[in-house]
Specification:
Layout lengths: L2 E5 L2 E4 L4 E8 L6 E8 L6 E7 L4 E3 L7 E6 L4 E6 L8 E9 L12 E2 L3 E6 L1
Parallel strand pairs: 2-11
Antiparallel strand pairs: 1-3, 3-8, 4-5, 4-9, 5-6, 7-8, 9-10, 9-11
């Protein structure tokens, strides 16, 4: 059974930092990409960042330069380092996985989803 488990969310003030982790188990493909998505109340889910097995990454324009995505393949874990957090970064952050080598930030392309972890940024 494939499972994704996020951790690391919390509440911070503007300008603060958080690190999210996502551990994957049981994924059936050797070549896969993982991504972070977020959803704020009343808004659609949006892609934040993605990273594939070969290290290729893609970021949303709104987080580029502030967020860093990485993965530890032997540990089957992905990370999102979030710096200089702003109130607009508030939302439920979910990790997701899809087969194949192409980094995409469209939710419909992802097959497996975690439960999510809440990030709240206050001014």
């Amino acid at each position: 059974q494939v499972q994704l488990a996020e951790s690391g969310g919390g509440s911070v003030q503007t300008g603060g930092s958080l690190r999210l982790s996502c551990a994957v188990s049981g994924y059936p493909y050797e070549d896969y990409c993982m991504a972070w998505f977020r959803q704020a109340p009343g808004k659609e889910r949006e892609g934040v960042a993605t990273i594939c097995m070969d290290g290729r990454k893609k970021y949303a324009d709104s987080v580029r330069g502030r967020f860093t995505i990485s993965r530890d393949n032997p540990k089957f874990t992905m990370y999102l380092e979030m710096n200089n957090l702003q109130t607009e970064d508030t939302g439920m952050y979910s990790c997701a996985a899809k087969g194949g080598p192409v980094p995409l930030l469209t939710p419909a392309n992802y097959e497996i989803w975690g439960q999510g972890t809440q990030v709240t940024v206050s001014s």
